[in-house]
Write a structure and sequence with these properties.
Zinc Finger, Delta Prime, domain 3, single chain, mainly alpha, disordered C terminus, 123 residues, 80% helix
């Protein structure tokens, strides 16, 4: 799911979300996974090289650090900041009861995927 989100593939990301929810994965756990990805992409974008990412403590794997760098290239710094903000807003909507957790996750995935599509159109 994280690869689909990073690639801006909304259909695939929504399919993965359905699979996770069908397996009774906790919606807040899924949100945490998406939030962590967004935060790590933002860190990778700011640090710009795999050794700095490893030194920051995000990961100990050079493979994962390089993968984060590759995925982060698809986004601007502003878009990654917007992704982190969207995750926070989704968490708030769920925890305050303003939206059902499944609906909030659907909206979040569509928002995140549309951020990446905007990047693809600009390129």
């Amino acid at each position: 799911m994280t690869d689909a989100l990073a690639a801006g593939n909304v259909d695939s990301a929504l399919d993965y979300l359905d699979r996770l929810l069908d397996r009774r994965e906790a919606p807040l756990g899924i949100l945490a996974m998406i939030s962590n990805l967004s935060r790590r992409l933002l860190i990778a974008k700011e640090l710009k090289n795999s050794s700095a990412i490893i030194q920051s403590g995000v990961t100990t794997s050079s493979y994962y650090a390089n993968k984060l760098l590759q995925q982060a290239r698809s986004f601007s710094l502003e878009q990654l900041e917007a992704m982190v903000e969207a995750c926070f807003h989704c968490d708030l909507l769920i925890k305050t009861g303003e939206m059902q957790d499944r609906d909030a996750l659907l909206v979040l995935i569509i928002q995140l995927s549309s951020l990446n599509r905007k990047t693809a159109k600009k390129s």
